[in-house]
Amino acid sequence: MREFDLIIVGSGSGNSILTEEYQDLNVAIVEPGTFGGTCLNVGCIPTKMYVYPATVAREALDASRLGLNASRDSVDWQSMRDRIFSRIDAIANGGLTYRQSLDNVTVIQEYVHFVAPKVLETESGEQITAPKIVLANGSRVQLPDVPGMDLPGVHTSDTVMRLDELPESIIVVGGGYIAAEFCHVFNGLGTRVTQLNRSGRLLRQHDDTIAERFKREAALQWDLQLNRSITGIERAADGKLKVTAAASDESLETWEGTADVVLVATGRVPNSDTLNPEAANLDVFGSGLLAVDEYQRVLSTGRPVEGLWALGDVCSLYQLKHVANAEARTVAHNVVHPDDLRSTDHRFVPSAVFTEPQIATVGMTEEQARVWADQNNTDITVKEQNFGDVAYGWAMEDSVGICKLIADKNTGLLLGAHLIGKDSSNLIQPLIQGMSFGQTAHEIARGQFWIHPALAEVVENALLGLDVPGQG
Ligand SMILES: Cc1cc2nc3c(=O)[nH]c(=O)nc-3n(C[C@H](O)[C@H](O)[C@H](O)COP(=O)(O)OP(=O)(O)OC[C@H]3O[C@@H](n4cnc5c(N)ncnc54)[C@H](O)[C@@H]3O)c2cc1C
Ligand SMILES: NC(=O)c1ccc[n+]([C@@H]2O[C@H](COP(=O)([O-])OP(=O)(O)OC[C@H]3O[C@@H](n4cnc5c(N)ncnc54)[C@H](O)[C@@H]3O)[C@@H](O)[C@H]2O)c1
């Protein structure tokens, strides 16, 4: 059995643990896939590198209301794809080469699973052990159990960005983040998009106002087929892929549609099962999440296992890179300072959906805030401010954007912020900051200058519209 001081399983956020404090430790990093993990290779980064040109194209197509006639004459998919992946592949290869060059680091390029507590076995049968092990092995695509998933032309987010050609038509299955972002990408680049979702709602975890507004905007851009659950995919006589879907709403008929490509984006599951957690008696809950305490220590029958840590999608309620990175910082400290444990602050986890319009959110939805207020004997105040009501919104002729804020009427503290509209992923940041540092809505609004006439004035006005102490 090979012994190390530390084993890290997964090279996504797990790879960022190795700070200078680790240079005297004998470390193994286990990564069977492409070095760098999901975000770099098949997730956040390449998707946004496609989102940006798609957004530029949509802005051109929508510019006529500003008296500017522009068009999307042609799209060079191959050069876009090669530009994106020549950058990304170089970073992944460079990261692997760098780690392999370090005297104190061994990279093991195989899957591992537990055979006993603290003992992992590679696919080729080698056993490795260490007093400290970090489990950072992420999540993977979950496919519905229907026929046709293995047909050529049926893709997931892992493969669709490497297509040889921009498809003329695509059916996107799912109504979450991944489906939304790829509908925007392909629609912006000129593919005919049909989105199929099981429920009648898009972005189900978002505030109702935002989800409804997004549904309206999505229906204006592509063909939206809601309340339809995929039942199968087959090859049609004309060579296209034929998708069938049952109606989950009784008023609808069974649906059939054809396209060149099908993208299945029906969720992701944690990779804990690939670790054989039973052999180490590790606690697993929900969709397969490893149970951890607030210090990221992995639990076994409810108690932390000495020297065993987890972070990111394999254990987190949030499948988000900034959360995986924050948890990695916690673990990086705790592994080498076990007597001075830090916890990860999960109070105000924001996220953004990079569509056109963008969506950004932090904290409670209005529905959650009403329940919370009842339980805590307080009241809430809600303000919806249209982007179109501020000067920059006039410049944009905006009729889409909303900044919706929810605050505790008595304390003035923000409970939730939900934006849809241009640059929402950036506009929300002062609200995340104010919530994180305990500032009231009035303090955020009046404790600083807001640049005039920047779009951020919509956030200032939304804050001033809340019925909280200090306003007036
Ligand atoms: C298409 C897409 C777009 C996304 N966009 C965003 C975004 O814009 N913003 C955002 O915040 N988040 C986004 N995410 C989510 C984000 O990518 C993940 O939350 C994040 O990358 C998780 O990091 P991780 O370190 O936990 O896991 P990963 O980066 O997935 O790393 C885990 C690694 O472990 C390896 N592994 C798995 N099982 C084993 C095993 N048994 N043995 C050894 N190794 C194993 C895997 O090969 C993998 O490389 C996106 C995800 C996808 C799929
Ligand atoms: N911008 C970002 O931060 C970003 C971008 C992409 C992904 N992510 C992360 O990745 C995670 C996974 O994303 P996702 O979109 O795959 O999952 P998701 O859980 O958000 O959405 C899955 C969707 O598929 C639908 N669905 C499930 N089974 C179906 C079926 N049989 N037929 C039709 N529809 C079906 C569900 O109703 C749901 O709308 C997200 O939760 C998010 O945390 C984040």
Notes on the protein architecture:
- The protein is an alpha/beta fold.
- The chain has helices at 37-42, 44-61, 77-101, 177-189, 208-221, 321-336, 366-375, 391-396, 424-427, 429-436, 441-446, 457-464; strands at 2-3, 6-9, 27-30, 105-108, 112-116, 119-122, 127-129, 132-135, 139-141, 154-155, 169-173, 192-196, 223-225, 228-235, 241-247, 255-259, 261-264, 268-270, 284-285, 289-290, 297-300, 303-310, 351-353, 359-363, 380-386, 402-408, 414-420.
- The strands form 7 sheets. The protein has a 6-stranded mixed sheet.
- Strand 11, helix 4 (177-189) and strand 12 form a beta-alpha-beta unit.
- Helix 2 runs antiparallel to helix 3 (77-101) and helix 2 (44-61) crosses helix 4.
- The model has no long low-confidence stretch (mean pLDDT 97).
- The structure holds flavin-adenine dinucleotide and nicotinamide-adenine-dinucleotide.
- Nicotinamide-adenine-dinucleotide is lined by residues 144, 173-179, 181, 196-199, 204, 229-230, 265-268, 319-320, 351-354.
Write a brief structural summary.
This is Mycothione reductase. This protein has 472 residues and is α/β, with parallel strands linked by helices. The protein is 28% helix and 25% strand.
